[in-house]
Design goal:
The complex is a heterodimer. By secondary structure, chain A is of the alpha/beta class. Chain A has nine helices and eleven strands. The model of chain B has no long low-confidence stretch (mean pLDDT 91). Classes of the chains: A alpha/beta, B mainly alpha. At the A-B interface, helix 1, helix 2, helix 3, helix 4 and strand 10 of A face helix 1, helix 4, helix 9, helix 11 and helix 12 of B.
Chain lengths: 347, 463
C-alpha cells in the first residue's frame, strides 16, 4: 500500500524457499515426519485426545475424534510414556489445581420424596421483600465475583466498569466452553469451592448454561439424557450444590441469571429446562439467592429477538450467534444485576 | 476447524498422505482437495459451505464472461458487477447490523421510525479473505494478467484449506500456476514447513494466548482498575500478542501448504523493525497491503495526481483497510490514524532528518498507540485506556514471564536479519526424521500451556 510502486513488482516473495542453502526433501519424508510426530503424540497424550473428544458436542466431529481418541487413550494408558510426559510438562499448566475439592455428587436422588419425608421449609426460603417483611440492613460490598461460561462475558467487564470506581474488587472469572452438565473441562462443583476459598467474595454473579445439555450420570451411574424431568432434576441438584457453596452459609449473596432464549430451537429447548432448574434449585435460600430472570427482559414469552427498545431506542442486543448478549445487551444485563446488588449492598 | 486443535491434528495427516498419493493424478487430486477443504470449512459452519460455493460460481462465471466478451466496456461492466456482488455479500454479512443500528440511532434522534430490520447475521468464518481472493481473481482476469481457470481450479483456489479462513490473501496469479502441473514430490520443503508450524504454534499458543490471558484482556476490559505502569505494559503486550497471533497463524498456514507442495506469499517481514508508516505497511499483513494497493489505491489514482489527490487516496485506502477489519468505529479510527501517518510521512517527504534508531523508536510507539485503538472495544475504552497512562500507581502485572514473553515476541525482529535467516536455514536443512520428533515434543510442551477451555480462536478469525 505504498504510493508510486511499480504496478506489479514481484513483492510476494514466492521464491523465498528456492534460495540456495535451503534443502528440499521428498513428499514421502513429509508423510513419514507427520506420521512419526502423530505416533509420539498418541503415545504421550492419547488421554488428552480422548478427553478432547468427550468435551465435544455429539456429532460427526466428536465421533471422528473419539474414533482416534478412545484407542489412543487406551494405548497411552497402558504405557509409561503418557505419565512421563505429564510429569515433564505439568508444571506449565495454567489450570487450577482442583484436586483437593469435592466435585458434584454423582448419586443425586431423582426419586419423588416419599410420604412422611417432607423436607422442612426454613426461613431462608423466603425473600423478605416478597412477603412485605423489612429487608436486612445493607452490607458494604467488598468483593464481587462474576463467573460462568462465555455468557458471563462481557457482563463481567460491564459490572467491573460500574463498580471498580467505587472501590469494589471485581473478580472476572469466565470459563469459556464449560457447562454444569459436563465435568470434562471443569467440574463446577470443585471450581465453585475453589473460587470461594481463593477469592472470598461476598457477592457472586453467575451466568452460565449456554453449553449445557450433556448427558449426566443419574442413579446407579446410568446416563440421563437432556432434557427430561430426570435430567432437569440432576441439573438442579448440581446448581443447588453450587449455590450452597457460593452462599457460604448465608454470609454471601448470589445473583444467578437465567438464560435469555437463544435463536436455535434446539438450544432454546435446553435453555427452558436450564432456567426451570435454576428456579427450583434456589428455593431453599430465596433470602440469599436472587434468580435474575433475563427472559422477560430480552425474550418475552421465550420468543427470540435480535433487538429491543432500550430507553425507547431500538437496539440490537444479541450477538450474531443468537446465543450471547452483545455489548448493548450486556450493559443492560449489568444494570439489571446492579439493581439487585444495590438492594443488598452499599458501595 | 482451528489449526491448533485435536480435530485438525487428526484431519491433516490423513489429508496430507492422501494428497500426495493422488497428486500425480490431478483429475482425482483436485476433487479430493476440494472435498477436504469443504470438510475443514464445514467444521466451523456447514451452512456457509453453500456461500463459499456460491462465491466460487459467481466469480468463475464472471471471469469466463469477461474473457469471452470482445468489448472492453462490456468486460468492465461485468467486472464491476462481479466485484459489487462480492462487496454486497461482504457488506450484508459483515456490516449490516452495524449499519442498521447506526441508521436506527440517527433516525430515532429525529423521532423517525426504523427503516431497516435490526437483525444480527452470523458472520461466516473467513468471508473477508475468500471474497478478497475472489475479487483479485476476477479483476486480474479483467486486466489480462491471468487466463480464466477451469471451474475445478477456481474451486481449489478459493477453498484450499490452509489459507481459507484467515489468509494469507493469496492472489490467483500466485496460486493457479501451481495447479497447472502436479507438485513435484521430490522437491518438498519439508523441514522449512515443519519449522514454520512449530514457530507458529509457539507464537500463537505460548506467547499470544498467554499475554492475552494474563495482561491484555484484564486491562482492556477495565482500564480504570489499573494505573499507568500496567496500562503501558498492556499496550506493549497487545503489540506482541497481535503479531504473534496473526503471524503465528500465517506461519502455520504457510508451513502446512509447504508440506503439501504449495508456496504462499510472505505475510510478515519483521514489522516492528519498521522506521516509518510506509515501511510498516510493507512489513505487516503484506498480502492485504498489496491487495489494497493494487485494488483500491492505484485504481483511485495512486500518487499520479496532485499532492492533495494522493493524500485523499491514501486516506480512503487506509479507512477502507481499517473497516475491512470489522464493523466498529475503533477500526475506522485505526484506519484513519494510519492514513494520517502515511499522509504526514508523504508530506514531510524526508525533510526531517533523524537517526535510524530514533525513527524506529517513534514509529514503534506510534504503532503501539494504533494497536490500542484497534484492541479497545469502543472509543470510550480507548480514551479510558489512554487517560490511565497519566495515572501514576503501582505495577501489579509486571512479572518476569510477561516481560520475557514480550521480549521473545518482539526482540527477534530487531536482531540483524542475517543470523536469524542463517538459523532458519540451518533448521530447514535438518532431516525431517530428526525434526518431526522435536516438533512432537514441542507440541507436548505447548499443549501443556493450554487452559482447560482450549485455545482461543485466532484474532483474525473475526475479520
Amino acid at each position: 500500500m505504498t504510493p508510486a510502486e511499480p504496478k506489479h513488482r514481484d513483492d510476494n516473495l514466492m521464491d523465498r524457499f528456492d534460495r540456495p542453502g535451503l534443502r528440499r526433501f521428498r513428499a514421502r519424508d513429509a508423510i513419514i515426519a507427520v506420521a512419526i510426530g502423530s505416533v509420539i503424540l498418541i503415545l504421550s497424550a492419547g488421554g488428552s485426545i480422548r478427553k478432547a473428544g468427550n468435551s465435544m458436542r455429539a456429532g460427526i466431529g466428536r465421533d471422528a475424534v473419539l474414533a482416534v481418541g478412545d484407542p489412543a487413550g487406551w494405548l497411552a494408558g497402558r504405557l509409561p510414556v503418557q505419565h512421563a510426559a505429564h510429569v515433564l510438562t505439568n508444571w506449565l499448566s495454567p489450570n487450577l489445581d482442583l484436586s483437593g475439592f469435592v466435585g458434584f455428587t454423582t448419586t443425586s436422588s431423582t426419586t419423588t420424596a416419599a410420604a412422611g419425608s417432607i423436607p422442612p421449609v426454613t426461613p431462608d426460603a423466603f425473600d423478605p421483600g416478597t412477603i412485605g417483611a423489612p429487608p436486612p440492613a445493607r452490607q458494604p460490598l467488598h468483593t464481587l465475583l462474576v463467573t460462568g461460561d462465555s455468557m458471563s462475558e462481557p457482563l463481567d467487564q460491564d459490572l467491573a466498569q460500574l463498580l471498580v470506581p467505587d472501590g469494589v474488587n471485581v473478580i472476572q472469572d469466565p470459563h469459556i466452553g464449560t457447562g454444569i452438565s459436563s465435568t470434562v473441562l471443569v467440574d463446577w462443583g470443585k471450581l465453585s469451592a475453589y473460587q470461594v476459598r481463593h477469592d472470598h467474595p461476598n457477592a457472586i454473579v453467575v451466568f452460565i448454561g449456554a453449553n449445557d445439555g450433556y448427558s449426566m450420570p443419574g442413579p446407579g451411574g446410568r446416563e440421563v439424557n437432556c432434557c427430561s424431568v430426570e435430567w432437569a432434576t440432576i441439573y438442579a441438584q448440581r446448581v443447588r450444590e453450587m449455590m450452597n457453596t457460593y452462599r457460604q452459609g448465608g454470609a454471601a449473596r448470589v445473583y444467578w441469571l437465567t438464560l435469555p432464549t437463544p435463536r436455535d430451537p434446539a438450544r432454546a429447548k435446553i435453555s427452558l429446562v436450564v432456567n426451570a432448574a435454576i428456579e427450583v434449585a434456589a428455593e431453599p435460600w430465596r433470602d440469599q439467592i436472587r434468580v435474575i430472570d433475563t427472559v422477560p427482559v430480552f425474550t418475552p414469552g421465550n420468543r427470540y429477538r435480535d433487538s429491543m427498545p432500550i430507553n425507547g431506542e431500538p437496539t440490537i442486543v444479541r450477538e450474531s450467534d443468537g446465543i450471547h448478549l452483545n455489548d448493548a445487551g450486556s450493559e443492560l444485563a449489568a444494570k439489571l444485576v446492579l439493581g439487585y446488588v444495590d438492594k443488598d449492598f452499599t458501595h | 476447524m482451528l489449526f491448533p486443535t485435536v480435530q485438525f491434528g487428526i484431519f491433516f495427516p490423513i489429508v496430507l498422505a492422501l494428497s500426495w498419493a493422488l497428486m500425480s493424478r490431478p483429475a482425482l487430486w483436485k476433487p479430493f482437495i476440494v472435498a477436504a477443504s469443504y470438510v475443514f470449512y464445514a467444521a466451523a459452519s456447514p451452512v456457509f459451505c453453500l456461500l463459499l460455493a456460491g462465491v466460487t460460481l459467481w466469480n468463475h462465471g464472471a471471469a469466463r464472461l469477461i474473457h469471452r466478451s470482445p468489448d472492453e466496456r462490456a468486460k468492465a461492466w461485468i467486472c464491476r458487477l462481479a466485484v459489487a456482488g462480492n462487496l454486497l455479500l461482504l457488506g450484508v454479512f459483515k456490516y449490516y447490523s452495524w449499519f442498521a443500528q447506526g441508521v436506527a440511532q440517527v433516525l430515532h434522534s429525529f423521532s423517525l421510525g426504523v427503516p431497516l430490520p435490526l437483525l444480527t447475521i452470523a458472520l461466516p468464518v473467513g468471508i473477508s479473505f475468500f471474497t478478497f481472493q475472489a475479487i483479485s481473481y476476477t479483476v486480474d482476469v479483467k486486466r489480462g494478467l491471468i487466463e480464466p481457470a477451469r471451474l475445478i481450479d477456481t474451486t481449489v483456489y478459493l477453498s484450499f484449506f490452509p489459507h481459507l479462513v484467515a489468509g494469507p490473501i493469496v492472489r490467483a496469479r500466485e496460486f493457479l500456476p501451481q495447479l497447472a502441473s502436479p507438485r513435484d514430490p521430490s522437491r518438498v520443503a519439508v523441514s522449512s514447513g515443519l519449522m514454520l508450524i512449530g514457530m507458529g504454534l509457539v507464537k500463537k499458543v505460548v506467547l499470544a494466548d498467554y499475554l492475552g490471558r494474563t495482561v491484555v484482556d484484564p486491562v482492556f476490559a477495565v482500564p480504570r482498575a489499573y494505573h499507568a505502569p500496567d496500562v503501558l505494559l498492556a499496550a506493549y503486550a497487545y503489540t506482541a500478542q497481535i503479531y504473534c497471533d496473526f503471524s503465528g497463524y500465517t506461519d502455520i498456514a504457510i508451513g502446512l501448504a509447504l508440506l503439501m507442495g504449495f508456496v504462499f506469499p510472505q505475510n510478515f517481514n519483521s514489522p516492528y523493525r519498521a522506521t516509518g508508516f510506509r515501511d510498516f505497511w510493507r512489513r505487516w499483513h503484506m498480502t492485504l497491503s498489496r491487495f489494497l494497493r493494487d485494488f483500491v489505491y492505484i485504481p483511485l489514482g495512486g500518487s499520479r495526481g496532485s499532492r492533495l489527490m494522493t493524500y485523499r487516496n491514501l486516506m480512503i485506502t487506509m479507512l477502507l483497510g481499517g473497516l475491512w477489519h470489522g464493523a466498529a468505529w475503533t477500526f475506522v479510527l485505526w484506519g484513519a490514524y494510519n492514513g494520517v501517518g502515511l499522509v504526514t510521512e508523504h508530506a514531510l517527504g524526508g525533510r526531517l532528518r533523524a537517526p535510524g534508531w530514533l525513527r524506529w523508536l517513534i514509529t514503534f510507539h506510534l504503532v503501539v498507540l494504533g494497536w490500542v485503538m484497534f484492541r479497545a472495544e469502543s472509543l470510550g475504552v480507548t480514551w479510558a485506556f489512554l487517560s490511565r497512562l497519566a495515572s501514576p500507581g503501582s505495577a501489579t502485572l509486571w512479572t518476569v514471564p510477561v516481560l520475557a514473553a514480550i521480549v521473545v515476541a518482539i526482540g527477534p525482529q530487531l536482531l540483524p536479519a542475517r543470523p536469524v535467516q542463517a538459523l532458519q536455514d540451518w533448521i530447514g536443512r535438518l532431516r525431517p526424521i530428526v525434526l518431526a520428533p522435536a516438533l512432537a515434543v514441542l507440541i507436548l510442551f505447548i499443549g501443556a500451556t493450554v487452559p482447560s477451555q482450549g485455545v482461543p480462536p485466532f484474532i483474525y478469525f473475526r475479520f
